[in-house]
Amino acid sequence: MKLKFPIIIIVISFLFACENNPKKTQTDTKTDQTTKVGLDNGRWISTSDSNAGVQIKDGKFIMFYKGTETSSNSIYEYELTEKDGIEYLNLKNAEGDEMIYGLLEYSEETMVLSYLDRGNTLTYEKE
Q: 61 vs 50, 66, 117, 127, CA distance in Å?
């Protein structure tokens, strides 16, 4: 009888130690969900060069310079996506050239982009 009691205690202790606790084993994982969002139509002028700007019109992102003709390779299809809390502006023109910007700020008055290949920041104000 004396031997059975310690064995029962050990078995019960073992069962409690092996308890499946989902809080301890569950890990948080980031989702790879991407959400599509859009930009409003309008013209934006660069704060560093008042002749340079972009126009967003009907799903197109058009880069222009006042006083010059806009070439076809300056007209881009755009897709604005958000992933893990960061917004990205993906541009692709008819020639297949692609550029990716981080959208740092977007409001009714201001748009700030960071060109990811070089890291330079472009700031625009609504015209």
A: 18, 16, 18, 15
